[in-house]
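Lecture notes, part 5. Sequence design as translation. It can be helpful to think of inverse folding as translation between two languages: the language of shapes and the language of residues. The source text, in structure tokens, appears below.
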């Protein structure tokens, strides 16, 4: 199969809808990362998402709706906490776990009785779902286990020859996958941190909790290795001054590395990329930087961590999953 990249104009969106109607998959931009979409209500179409990504079939998909009000058609119950979150954060980078209606095929949710719903704010995603007239199931458009794509070129690298069309709208806004909140229990749980931060969620639902770290993963996707470049990643955590010194010392010992850090100090490594010190500014560049570091031959990628507050918590969640080694200084 030849994979076309087309600028996401009206004609390309029409072409994408035509493919979706035929049960095909299409990659498209959202405000978080590029998604690989198919008709969420068509089992055979959904099957193609799993095949294109080599995704384990028990890892359920997020179902994207065009309007906040569309949640009612696919969630069997919308508890008050979900209503509050929808009012505050939809459309936007927030996904909610809710009990599903029978309209959603079991294949879409990996046989779970729940469905994750998201109403994206990106105009191309919105137009695509609205004009298609049905919800679109879409995981991130990367090969399973790899770093999520933040450009159409990333999607092409991972899925060339496996999907017919990529709608290109340049770089996306947030660069981290959506925040996931489980609304099916009495106490809402933050399953995946993202650009809608714990702090801003708690400002509207103060009882939001974090799942106990010892419990088995509640999100099937959490048990798989994720966000991982092929080159092993070492993550440095701690005070910025100390992690800067530790990375500089590590490069002096072993220069066959790529470094992603926040310092402007010169380093004799194979690749050195300065990322913004502010997590909000770093997030949109992070996955691109990891992919660039992975593309050069180097023995390791050394990454300087961020503080664990705000969007920093979401960045650290992704980096901890990508890392094969963590150095606390
Ligand atoms: O920003 C995003 O969320 C992007 C864009 C394309 O919308 N999508 C995305 O999908 O990141 P994916 O499949 O890469 O991540 C979805 C996560 C997975 O960890 C999956 O296991 C979890 O959500 N999930 C999906 N359905 C679930 C359910 N019913 N219960 C618990 N977790 C679920
Ligand atoms: Mg993913």
């Amino acid at each position: 199969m030849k994979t076309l990249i087309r600028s996401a104009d009206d004609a390309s969106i029409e072409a994408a809808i035509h493919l979706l109607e035929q049960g095909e998959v299409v990659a498209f931009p959202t405000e978080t990362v590029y998604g690989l979409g198919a008709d969420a209500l068509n089992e055979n179409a959904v099957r193609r998402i799993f095949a294109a990504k080599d995704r384990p079939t028990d890892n359920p998909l997020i179902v994207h709706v065009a309007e906040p009000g569309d949640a009612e058609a696919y969630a069997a119950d919308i508890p008050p906490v979900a209503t509050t979150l929808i009012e505050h954060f939809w459309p936007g980078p927030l996904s909610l776990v809710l009990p599903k209606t029978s309209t959603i095929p079991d294949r879409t949710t990996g046989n779970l009785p729940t469905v994750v719903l998201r109403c994206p704010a990106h105009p191309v995603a919105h137009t695509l779902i609205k004009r298609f007239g049905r919800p679109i199931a879409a995981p991130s458009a990367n090969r399973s286990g790899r770093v999520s794509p933040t450009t159409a070129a990333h999607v092409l690298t991972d899925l060339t020859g496996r999907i017919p069309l990529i709608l290109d709208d340049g770089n996306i806004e947030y660069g981290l996958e959506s925040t996931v909140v489980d609304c099916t229990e009495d106490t809402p749980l933050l399953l995946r941190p993202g650009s809608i931060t714990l702090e801003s969620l708690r400002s509207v639902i103060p009882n939001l909790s974090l799942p106990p770290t010892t419990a088995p993963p509640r999100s099937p996707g959490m048990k798989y290795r994720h966000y991982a470049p092929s080159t092993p990643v070492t993550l440095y955590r701690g005070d910025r001054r100390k992690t800067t010194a530790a990375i500089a010392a590590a490069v002096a010992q072993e220069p066959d590395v790529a470094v992603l850090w926040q310092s402007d100090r010169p380093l004799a490594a194979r690749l050195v990329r300065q990322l913004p010190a502010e997590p909000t500014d770093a997030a949109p560049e992070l996955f691109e930087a990891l992919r660039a570091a992975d593309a050069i031959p180097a023995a390791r990628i050394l990454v300087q961590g961020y503080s664990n507050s705000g969007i920093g918590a979401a960045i650290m969640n992704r980096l901890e999953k990508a890392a094969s080694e963590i150095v606390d200084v």
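The translated text above is only one of many valid answers, since several sequences can fold into similar shapes. The two ends are 49 Å apart (CA to CA).
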